Amino acid sequence: MTTTVYKAPYIVAYQGGGHRILRDGCVVVTNDRVTHVGPSYDGPADEVVDCPDRIITPGLISTHAHIAESPIDKSLQEDIGRRVFWQTGLIEVLPTIVKSMRPEDVEACVDYSMLELVRTGCTTVFAMDGASEYVADAVERTGIRAYIGDMYRSGAWRTTDGTRVTYTWDEEAGRAGLQRAIKTVESLDGRADGRIRGCLAPAQVDTCTEELLRASKEASDSLGAPLSLHASQSIVEFIEMNQRHGKTPIEWLESIGFLGPRTILGHAIVVAGSSYANYPGDDLALLANSGTSVAYNAWCFGRRGIVLETYPEYLRRGVNVCLGTDTAPQSMIESLRWTAVLGKVTGRNAEASTARDVFDSATLRAATALGRDDLGRIAPDAKADLLFWHTDSLFMTPVRDPIRTLVYAAQAEDLASVMVDGRWVMQDGTVRGISERDVLARLQRSAASVWERWPDADWAGRRLDELCPQTYPDFTE
Prior knowledge:
The protein has about 475 residues and is α/β, with parallel strands linked by helices. The chain has 2 domains: about 110 residues, Urease, subunit C, domain 1, CATH 2.30.40; about 300 residues, TIM Barrel. The strands form 4 sheets. Strands 1, 2, 3, 4, 5, 17, 18, 19 and 20 form a 9-stranded mixed β-sheet that branches. The chain is globular, with a radius of gyration of 22 Å. The chain starts with a strand and ends in a 10-residue tail after the last helix. The mean pLDDT is about 95.
């Protein structure tokens, strides 16, 4: 038993059901848990650490991440949007990236993602990928907390002409994928002193049969594992599901019993009542009444001109909206900021989509989605997942309201140290167990190889520069 007292001028402590700003207080950590938070502490301690230039906050939770390929999205998804597919990159760009990747490219992405997540304050990540064993190894080496699951599905979308989307189906592959996913949950749960747990991740609502989703929900209930599904993420998908069932994707999921407190829907943007769908209905009521959570990835969609309509409205209606990192950059700092700013823009209200709202979504609401009352807060018996931010750095000075400062001004360099389970994962900007120089070099090589192989995976055999031209042409002599 080792007890350490951390003193700081600002601590975001949990009290009375919510976060509170504790000034000139202390956090006491014994082994992997917080044992006391308050203005003072007079109990036994092995060490007292004075942090006169730090803000201590709970760690941030990303409820939606694809760490095995997202780093290669960088510079491939911005500034392009095929109008025939209503701006989504799901149909042409994403499948081509995945098909172009080799195992060593996946590993390079995972290792880079560990670095990126820790450096931007993510202490728990919900990772949906196809390399669960390697992801688990990387998580264990790095020291963060993770829910890990291999995605599976009954079908896949494709285009052969650049204008229409078709689906290929293999129900047996979907059933086999679910069985593998169940085994993954069973094998991962409790690993790394409990920091690693499994999750179930059927891929997309339009690529999974009713049978597969019902079986996934039953497995989730039986295992007590969180259940994630991409749903209402594109107009292509919305139209497809309406044509199949005469219902919105969320209405259909409700009708088959898929929604519930353990279910996290990735995105849930194109919903009944939104301008994207122009379709009457009340999907938000179905989400709120069922206790289903939404993982919002503001930057990922905002770069394509797509946003929740609106984040403040989802909260007002009682939907448990969490935040994710999804694609490049995998930054919880950027997720906080873009959620706040885009929510104000779409709601046309500076007093909505506040720093408090988004910080709660990245901590308390995310913990609710995972069924964890020991995460996302600094309180007795909570896990010691803590962030130590500078108060005296360029972007953090001056500090008046630490949460507004974090949400609207902080950069990755302003995060000094990260603790998970009472152990240091990053100290003074250095992430443990990772050679940053090596990780960056490997990712650059992997990305270059994906770019080179692009024509072999593209449906039309196009070079990458044809689909996603460079910002400026090359300089010529």
